[in-house]
Amino acid sequence: MQREDKRKLDELRPISFQIGFQSHPLGSVLVQFGGTRVICAVSMEESVPRWMKEQEVPGGWITAEYQMLPSATGTRTDREVTKGRLSGRSAEIQRLVGRSLRAVVDLQKLPGITLHVDCDVIDADGGTRCASITGAGVALELAAKRLMEQGKIDQWPILNRVAAVSVGLLQGEALLDLAYVEDSAADVDMNVVMTAGGRYVELQGSGEEATFSDTDLNRLLTIARKGLGEIFAMEEQLLA
Description:
Layout: E1 15-19, E2 27-33, E3 36-45, H1 50-54, E4 61-68, H2 80-83, H3 88-102, E5 114-123, H4 128-150, E6 162-170, E7 173-176, H5 180-183, E8 188-195, E9 200-207, H6 214-239
Parallel strand pairs: 4-5
Antiparallel strand pairs: 1-2, 2-3, 3-5, 6-7, 6-8, 8-9
């Protein structure tokens, strides 16, 4: 099959990271996956959630928030704050971002600290959650470096890098890094979150009025690993 943007089936969209995108956060990055752009920023609060204090849980915490700006898509959407509640989709994605980051951080090495990770989608063209996780991982590493420099922490807390990419089945073909036009038409779509060490953090896959086999799953995971390997190589060069 011919992809609309002429990419190979196992080819990523153009990906870029603009680090230090904002002035005030400890770490920030504008991450771009093709037409999808997300600002990811990490800020610090010198306290921990109430439940950690009440249960005397040592260490620190990482929490995430995710939102799409009203103009991020072709049709304007209302800000969720005007509705008085977070949408189910946004709540699910920000929990995913938080889980993905906590999976690769030793929270014991963030004593008494909460890191707030904000992911704001300014342009959406598929894969916003994957771009958010990937950008947030870069912003988190920048923040950890700043905390070390400031003497707020004295041990490196990040155990491994984390990133995510989307894959899917469309017309029987396995595709890497789906743009919206592909994602909306896919028979099966999946988000793969993985560490640079090659271990999975989370797999989110479902058939859209379709089913998939073990063979299909292996095809999807194979191209996801290929794409994630390329993303981690970009990050290694960027953060070296």
